[in-house]
Amino acid sequence: MADRSKRQRISRAASTSQVTNNVPPMFGGSQPDARVASDGEPGSFVEGSILRIAMNNFLTYELAVVNPGANLNMIVGANGTGKSSIVCAICLGLAGKTALLGRGDKIGLFVKRGCSRGSIEIELYKNGGNVVINREISTENLSQWTLNGKSCSQKVVEEEVKGLQIQVSNLCQFLPQEKVGEFAKMSRIELLEATEKSVGPPEMYTYHCELKNFRGRERELENTVNEKAAFLERAKQKNESNKLDMNRYYEKKRHLDMIELLEKKKPWVEFEAVRKEHESVKTEREEVKKRLSSLKQTHGPMLKKIQLINNQLEPIEAQIKTKTFDIKEAARKCKARRDQLDRKQKEIDDIKQALNLKHTEKVDEEKRIANTKTIIDDLQKELATVGEQPDVAPRIDAISVELRGHQEERARLDGEKSDIRREKDNMVAESKSVRLNDMNNMMKAKEDKLKVRHKDTFTAIQWLRQNRQLFSGNVHEPMLLVLNVKDPRFAKYVETHIAFNDLRGFLFEKREDMEAFMKEVRDKLKLRVNSILAPAVSCANKQPSRPIESLKRFGFYSYLREMFDAPTDVVSYLCHQYNVHDVPVGTAQTKAMINKVIEEPYLKLIYTAEERYVVKKSMYSNHVSTNNSQLRPSKFLTISVDAEEKGQVEQQIQNCERKIKDLDERLAGLRENFSILEGRDNELRNEKKGLLEQKGKKRQLEQKIATKLDSLQQIEKNRVDLKKLEEDTKTKIGAVNAQKVAMMVEVMAQIKLRASLSMLKVHLTLQTLGLTAEKTHLEGSCKDRQMNRMNSCVLCECSVHWFSEESQGLVSVQAFSTLPDTMEELDALLNEECSRAEGFTGIRENVVEEYNRREVEIQNLEEELGDLSEALTTYRMNMSEAKERWLNPLRTLICQINERFGEYFRSMQCVGEVDLHSEKEEEYDKYGIRIRVKFHNSTELHELTAHHQSGGERSVSTMLYLMALQELNRCPFRVVDEINQGMDPINERRVFNIVVRTACKETTSQYFFITPKLLQDLQYAEEMTVLCIHNGPQMLSPGDWDEKAFLRRIARRKKRTKPE
To answer: What single string gives the DSSP state of each residue in 314-354?
Structure first.
């Protein structure tokens, strides 16, 4: 026991309920005193560590105060005592969400049953003054917060907790019982973020988030630059292809301009011929004007009559337009009234339909009344038939007493079964331990024999075990140690087939590892050792050329590959170098049939019971020759052990198996008794149920009759009065019909008005047609007399006028001077230019406009692309600086975690690695932490997932990763709840030792480890704090607990049990 002069840390626990936290010191033979929780000196606590947890009406606690220590806090207690309640108090008291605990989504569920309010108070260590957070909760899901005695909001508490680097939502810091399995389910990315928040510098996670945002912006800029560059390239290519079309366009335009010029020159040539006639035409025009004036005087009266007709037509046409408008208005009003009539008719239909529905309801109501009365009659008859029932209460009480007795018997059987299972588990563990010791003895014997036979190889093995971390790939010890022959009889075949230099050689996965090993061992240490390199492509899964079933007729029963177990790399080398997958092993029958066997063309090397045969076939004469040799006994792969010691081991194993069998038989008997009790319980429950039903049948019938009578009374009260309803319906329909009649009168008036207006419009239209015909006749008579002469005069005048205007427009064109002056030469040149212009086909008219517009776009794009490229370069430079600020510290951090994680796994004879994984270096949102573990020599490293490893292996990996974070910890405390439940005793002991060794260092922060059990003979440390939680009906009140008396009783008990 530890020196009692040292100050003990004592957990104060007060309770007015039956649940208390009493914490006695730990006792053991030679193990140190694991001191219980205390206030701790302020200097030993990290800022943010928990000094005190007080719970009032919270889950299992009525009133309790816990004072944890500054380092490792072991919270131990049976299931249901309230260990996880402390975890819940830490989470909820520090403003954590209820979803983090996996128990319920409402805060009111955490109030002690039977109470309406509860509270949590947590005191945190802080330089300059501790922080006290109080949260009062109610069953109405309400919370009230106080910080250092002052009321505040939850947001203020969250900020204070965040400032102390506490992250209860981070599984790397706070791992409650219900979330243990989720740690292995975390993705690489989630694990990296949780690790950054937990142990990284405060700015590391911020830098990571900024880099992810920067990368998104960079991708946007890259896409924009690439799109702009591609668009610019397409525009340049398009303009380059359009340049030829533009040149052809200008060439064609020159020809068209010449054609236009020639067309304009032709009128000038024609004008010269016409100009000479112009003078005579002018004189003739004057004469025509004089004749036209006289004709106008002659036809004056006829023109006046036409004007009079026009004056009569104008008012008539105005009247026709007015009548047309009136007709349309009358039609619109008529249509509106008809729509109103349709709506009124629909209203009448709705009223009739409502009446029909009431009729239907009336019929249904009568049916319900009749059915209800029938049911009441039936119930009354049944009630009348139920006479006075015998008193069944005594029988019910007797059954209840018997059921309670059965329940107590079942509880006793459950306890006995639990004891038997516990004893069986201990026997199984003892059997496994005996087998493991036997295997270790075999390996030790192999190593001793190798040390005698080849000391240099043994020395190199010792060096490799101490320096395995120097190699990046797999390095396997000599095959003499790693080969495991399935049957000692097979050892001679394996040892004969594989050269001894290879059996004692070290096998490497990577060439650089092999060269480094040989440099250290052979060149520096001057040891004579062999090294071999595994094939680059694995041959471990190579299949034989023929299935063994096809060779059984010759006595062969197995291939050499199936006779031993070895690591994958070793099997791959042996398949590649020695073809062990294709070398069959036979029996004495094979020896007897050897002449037939060697005739098989595919058998090159075979083994019989005692000989080795090598078959060769000449390439020239096809002659078959054989070389056989006697098999030598195995020297290494079959290690002889002390027969007496082996017998003792086998006897121990048999004893364990016999005890396990006896325990199984006892357990089966208990199960049978339990099943009999269950059957009897079911019979009693059914009988009790029938008696209770019989007892309450009369009361049930009376209640049903009363209910039906109430229902019948309610139905009759709400009966529908059809006569009154029909009278109301007739009244409503009459009112609607009166409205319809008024509307119909208006419709008929509008129809009559429309008919009269239509007749008047027809009369006016006929009058207009007569005047129009008379006007047309007069105009025709006037025009026929003068049309011919006027047309000729006007035509001549217009021609001269046109030639005059065209000539004035073309006189200023100097290009006419270079063109021919005769019509024949003009036509010839015009035909030539037309032919040339027609040769330019497929040219768009807007090609020049597109070319010029695209040139402007290209210039703008080049300027914009230059600006974007410059911005992208600057952005990448800034990202590179941010990346260095984030990635270098992160890699250093991961290396530190990997070093500690690997060290912990090596201490357990396992392998574990942690690395930073990313598919692409610049994809910052894809970075993640990859955990790879190997628990067996025969397997390879596999990534930690929720499916590949067993539950115990996941728990071990999770615990060791959290311990690797412990010394790097930036958070003030860490909580792990019942993570050791899936571990076997060996791993649980190893993990416990690592936890104690790591969490009890002065440089580490506070650690809470919750477990329902502890193995015996564990190693404790002075810095530990153990909180033992008990509850039950016989618990002492905290005020009645006497620690000194308890210690005296323990001392007296030890003296009594001490052997003489």
So the answer is: HHHHHHHHHHHHHHHHHHHHHHHHHHHHHHHHHHHHHHHHH
* Residue 71: DSSP 8-state: S
Q: Are strands 1006-1011 and 973-977 parallel, antiparallel or unpaired?
A: parallel
| Torsion sign across C-alpha atoms 457, 463, 466, 470 | negative
d(CA 336, CA 426): 99
Angstrom distances, CA of residue 359 to CA of 278, 300, 370, 382, 721: 106, 90, 17, 35, 10
**474-492 b/e with 16+ CB inside 10 Å = b?**
bbbbbbbbbbebeeeebbb
pLDDT in tens, 359-410: 887 778 778 888 888 888 887 777 777 655 566 667 677 777 777 777 777 7
Distance CA(15)–CA(57), nearest Å, equals 10
806, 271 Cβ separation under 8 angstroms = yes
DSSP-assigned states of every residue in 455-498: HHHHHHHHHHHHSGGG-SS-EE--HHHH-EESSGGGHHHHHHHS
Q: Note the pTM of the prediction, 2 decimals.
A: 0.39
Q: In whole angstroms, what is the distance from residue 602 CA to residue 478 CA?
A: 32
Q: How far apart are CA 225 and CA 223, in angstroms?
A: 6
Q: How far apart are CA 924 and CA 917, in angstroms?
A: 11
Rg (CA), the chain: 55
Q: Rounded to an integer, what distance in angstroms lies between the CA atom of residue 248 and that of residue 33?
A: 104
Cα-based distances in Å from 296 to 291, 301, 693, 793, 1013: 9, 10, 129, 16, 136
Q: Determine the Cα–Cα distance for residues 164 and 149; give it in Å rounded to an integer.
A: 19
Q: Kindly report, residue by residue over 767-805, the tens digit of the pLDDT.
A: 666 667 666 766 666 555 555 445 444 444 444 444 444
- One-letter identity of residue 689: K
